[in-house]
C-alpha cells in the first residue's frame, strides 16, 4: 500500500481499512503462536501499513481543524 493511495481515501474508508488490517494482524500473530505462519514478511508489512494509515488519518484530522 502506497501513501499516495492512502491519501486519496476518505476518513471513513481509512477507518475500515485500518480495522481490516488490525484483524489480519491478529490472525497473523495467532498463526505465529501456533507455528502455522508461512509468510513472516507479511507481519512487518501489515505493521507498517497500519502506521501509514494512522499517520495519514492524523494529518487529515489536523488539517481539518486548522
TrEMBL record:
One protein family per Pfam: Ribosomal_L29
InterPro entries reported for this sequence: Ribosomal_protein_uL29, Ribosomal_uL29, Ribosomal_uL29_CS, Ribosomal_uL29_sf
GO terms for cellular component: ribosome
Keywords, ordered alphabetically: Ribonucleoprotein, Ribosomal protein
Keyword Kinase: no
Protein family according to the UniProt entry: Belongs to the universal ribosomal protein uL29 family.
Protein name as annotated: Large ribosomal subunit protein uL29
Source organism phylogeny: Bacteria, Pseudomonadati, Pseudomonadota, Alphaproteobacteria, Hyphomicrobiales
HAMAP family tied to this protein: Ribosomal_uL29
Provenance organism: Roseibium sediminicola
NCBIfam families linked: L29
Amino acid at each position: 500500500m502506497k501513501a499516495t493511495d492512502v491519501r486519496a481515501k476518505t476518513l471513513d474508508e481509512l477507518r475500515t481499512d485500518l480495522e481490516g488490517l488490525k484483524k489480519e494482524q491478529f490472525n497473523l500473530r495467532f498463526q505465529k503462536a501456533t507455528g502455522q505462519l508461512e509468510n513472516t514478511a507479511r507481519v512487518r508489512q501489515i505493521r507498517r501499513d497500519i502506521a501509514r494509515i494512522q499517520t495519514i488519518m492524523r494529518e487529515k484530522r489536523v488539517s481539518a481543524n486548522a
